[in-house]
Known about the structure:
Blueprint: E1 2-7, H1 11-23, E2 28-33, H2 70-75, H3 86-90, H4 96-116, E3 120-124, E4 130-133, E5 138-142, E6 145-149, E7 151-154, E8 177-178, H5 181-184, E9 205-208, H6 212-224, E10 230-234, H7 263-279, H8 287-301, H9 304-322, H10 327-339, E11 342-355, E12 358-365, E13 372-376, E14 378-381, H11 396-402, E15 423-425, E16 431-437, H12 443-446, H13 452-468
Parallel strand pairs: 1-2, 1-7, 2-3, 7-16, 8-14, 9-10, 9-14, 10-11
Antiparallel strand pairs: 4-5, 5-6, 11-12, 12-13, 15-16
Amino acid sequence: MQHIAMIGGGLAGTLVAMHLVRHAQRPLCITLFDQQAQFQTGIAYAQSDFRHLLNVAAGKMSAWPDQPLHFVQWLQQQPAYANIDGALLAQTYLPRALYGQYLQQQWQQTVQDASSKNIQLKLLAVSVTKLRVLPTSIALSSALGEMQFDAVVVATGNELPRPPLPAASGLTAIAGYQHNPWQAVTIPHSNTQSTAKPLQPDSRVLILGNGLTMVDTVLALRQAGVRSPMISLSPHGYGMLPHRVSAVKLPDFASTLGEHPSLRQALRLFNQQRKQLRQLGISAEGLVDNLRPYSQLWWRGFSSAEKQFFFRKLRHLWGVARHRLPLQIHDQIQQLRLQGALEVRAGRLLSCQQHDSGIEVQFIAKGQTAPEVRQVDHIINCTGPENCYPRLANHMLATAIAEGVLASGPLELGLAACPGSLALKNGSGDIHPRLFGIGSILRGELWETTALNEIRQQAHQLAGQLLLLE
C-alpha cells in the first residue's frame, strides 16, 4: 500500500488529500500532519465570526478546478442561500467561516469516499521536526517518532511574520507585543488563560503593516470593543483598494506579449493600458486580474535581475492592486479613517521601550528626518509572512535547508523546486522524485501561488503525479 504524507493539514494539504481520494483506484494511506490541529480550514477559514469576508468572489472559490461553480452550487443547497440566483451568488463576497464549513463538508464526503475505496486517512496534530530523504522513501520525525512515506508534500502555508526589530531591541519580551497577528485578532478583553496583555476599550494599538491582515486586525479589535484610535505603520502606507463591480469587460491585452516578455515590456504595456482606461473613465484595477493567467509563466521567464527589480521596486504596488477588499469592508476601513479611528502612516519603526505608562514607540515617517514618538499599549505585527525560511528559528524547513536536504528558492523566497512538476530540490540543485511542494512555499519559483485558484490546480496536478509513483 502506498503511504503519502502532507506536512500541513490546512487548505493546501487537505486539497491534495481530497484529490488523491477522488482519483485513486487502489488502496492508499494518507497522513496529514498539522501542529495547530486546524485541519481542513487552516487559520484562514477557521474563524467563527461571520463578519470576516472572503477577498475573492464565491464564483472563484470552488475546491475542484474541473467544477468551477461547485461552491456556488453548494451554497444553493444551504437554506440561507437556496432562493438566491446562482449568477448573483457567484459575484458575492461571503463569510470565511461559511467557506470553512464548505471545506469541512467536502472533507466529510472525502472520508466517506475513502472508506468505500479502502483508503486510510490519518490526522496527526503534531509538528514535523525533521525531514530525511532516504533512497526509496522520505522519513519524517515528530513527537510520535520517525515515520517513513513513499512520498511527501510540503504544504506548510504561511509562516509567522519576521520580527520588525533586531533581537537585541527586546521588542519580543514586551508584554504588549503580539508577534502572531492571527492570535491577536481573537484576544478578548480579558483572558486568564493567556499571558498576553489584555485588551481594554481604551487600549492604544499600533499595527505594523498595511495589508489584508491589518484590515482583519482592525475590524476584529473594533468588534472586541477597542475604541481608541489605532495606527497602521508600513514602509509605503499605500491605501487599500476595493473590488468594484463593473460591467466593462477588459480586453485580453496580456496575450499580445507572448509567453516570455521582459519585465520592461510587461510594464510598458500595463502602463499603456492603465492610461487608456483612465482616459475613458474606467477603473484600471481589473488590469491585474487580466495579468493573472500569465503571471507564473512570465515570472519563470524573467531574469534574476528582473525578479530582483520587481521585488525591490514593484512588489508592494502589485500587492495593493492584487489583494483588494470586498467593497463593504473597504467602506468600513475608509469610514474608520474619516472618523479618526484609524491612522495610516508611511514610515519605519526605529525603537520600542517599555514604560509604566505603556510602550514608547519611535518611528521615522516617510520623507521626514526627525523621528516621531507615540505612546501605545499594544503592538501587533501584521507585516506579512516570513518567506525566507533560513530565518525561521527552530523550524523544520530551516534545518532542512541548513543540512542541504532542501534549498531556498529564487530571491530566498520559499523553497527551490521544479516549477513544472512542483518537485522540491536539494542544496545541490537535484530534484527529489518523492518530495513536492504546494502553495506559498513555491513563491520564489512561481510568485503567484498563494490563492485558491493556484492551490487547487497544484493539488489536482500533484494527486495525479503521486498516484503514478511506484
